Amino acid sequence: MKAVLLAAGLGTRLRPVTETTPKCLVTIGERTLLDIWLDALAEVGVDEVLLNTHHLADQVRHHVGLRRSGPPVRLLHEERLRGSAGTLRAARDLLEQDPWFLAVNADNLTDYDLAGLVDAHARGTAVATLTAFRTPHPSACGILEVDRDGGLVGFEEKPAHPSGDLANAGLYAFGREVLDLIDGPEPVDIGGHLLPRLIGLAQVVSIGDAYLRDIGTPEALAEARATWLEGAPR
What we know:
Elements: E1 2-6, E2 27-28, E3 31-32, H1 33-43, E4 48-53, H2 57-66, E5 73-77, H3 84-90, H4 92-95, E6 100-105, E7 108-110, H5 115-123, E8 128-134, E9 142-146, E10 152-157, E11 166-175, H6 190-197, E12 202-206, E13 212-214, H7 218-231
Parallel strand pairs: 1-4, 1-6, 4-5, 8-12
Antiparallel strand pairs: 2-3, 6-11, 7-13, 8-11, 9-10
């Protein structure tokens, strides 16, 4: 099973930290966010990670080269940012070798056990499995509408007038047929482009009470460091 770790963003909201450090290499406790993710992917049996790079790519390349455990990492450098869905499309030759793959946003910090996502997708018949959580700020998130059987029946990216508070957690299992749904000029994103096309095709699973935080601003990073160290499993 392969996994795509989406880590190429500029991290503009996290400046000045990201002026010298790529977002995936910020530290949480004693580990980088990248290492936290690579260890989590290893735990669920991922045998190859595709990691996209762009901003301060040499630092990421050097860090990956120092790792001596976990799944092999294949770096996919982007001279111009493709967008999250564009990255999947560019890696199509690699991803379609298996029936399905994982894709995760590397700028999220979570202790969610990815085995729940893997098991749900393996048991189900949907072409994609999305993860969700309840948010107090629905206008800042991608909002999912789900039927009583867990099927995706609606999606809006950062709606001004949200229909609910069930938000996209940014952890996905995608069947290779999903790659056929990605078209148009780059950059093209999972939230803005792909998820609306998965209405009626995807299933949704909750991450429950798992810890989840976007570390995209200095304030969010500071809070994540404090709360993660105070009690979040790691």
